Amino acid sequence: MSATRATGRTGRRTVRARAAARGTARAQTTARTAEALPTAMKAAAIERFGPPSVLTLHELPVPSVGPTEVLIAVHTAGVGYWDARIRDGSWAEGPVRFPLVLGTDGAGFVVAKGARVRRLRIRDRVWAYAYMNPKGGFYAEYVAVGERGAARVPAGLDLLQAGASAVTGLTALQGIDDVLGVRRGETVLVFGASGAVGTLALQFARRRKARVIGTASGANAAALVRRLGADEVVDARTDEDVERLRSLAPEGLDAVLALAGGERLERCLSLVRAGGRVAWPNGVEPEPRRRRGVVMRAYDGAAGPREFARLGRAVAEARLRVPITNVFPLVEAAEAHARIEEGHVLGRVALRIRSRR
Fold first, then answer.
1. CATH number of the domain at 40-165+322-352, please?
2. Among 101, 186, 280, 285, which has the minimal tally of Cβ within 10 Å of its Cβ?
3. How many CB atoms neighbour CB 123 within 10 A?
4. pTM here?
5. Residue 25 pLDDT grade (very low, low, confident, very high; cuts 50, 70, 90)
6. Residues 291-328: pLDDT tens digits?
7. Within the chain, which residue ranges are assigned CATH 3.40.50.720?
8. Residue 123, CA distances (Å) to 72, 99, 120, 126, 146 in order
9. Measured distance CA(106)–CA(137) in Å, rounded
């Protein structure tokens, strides 16, 4: 063996050894962080599909963190009707392993991260979204999610507001900006404006300088929608208000974000002008009926670095307010689901996991 080949092999070994040492150091950094954490946590989980009562408090292992994941000490978890549909089994996806920790979005602090995570740092305040996360949901003291599904909380929100608005904010903004493409001066109807997505969507539409009409049922819901900036509020349950909607948009509605389905929605959609647009998140039932001359699209809210960055800018531009109707402790997760199933929730329901701000 020549000296040159021997030197080359030794050099390669040295390079490999240094790279391995760097990788080990990165892994040890994460491990050291993890070692300072408990090995077990409290979580609200289900052992089977069923009514709210199947959601009970468990003690489970703190999830491990993969190379591209962050571990979040959860402050607040949002509670939505989609969580209830996962709980009862109707929206659960793929093979489900019990106990299943529920919760699709929330906010908290990064307490550990994988070796390949670059955008986020330990102790960052983050909000995150992960649907049917294989390592468990946000109804827990800790959750491990992919870095792409998390982002730093924008300055205008505290952790309670952020935890209650990650998935709803993404869904609302993408409906208004991307699917409907709302423009200045257009007349936009937010159908279901007092709900978790609707309260944010009407503010994002106002940010676009649109004329916003919101539907709301009851005095409290109507008052909330007005406070959030709707130009007009109608009650789609009454024939009189549907006729008033016609007078409010004599040339027809330019765009509708439909957050609930049914005949009340269909009566409003009859007022969409030719060439107008209708959008709704997948899961709205029954789906709006297709109409000739109207662009109609269902969509899913997407999460990623670009989407969270855009949402953060929109939060600042809209000076977003996040209405939260009820806050429950983790131990009362079943009561939170019962509240969701009562209906007529103004804004969002949330679980407070930690008191730290």
1. 3.90.180.10
2. 285
3. 10
4. 0.89
5. very low
6. 999 999 999 999 999 999 999 999 999 999 999 999 99
7. 168-299
8. 9, 29, 9, 9, 16
9. 9
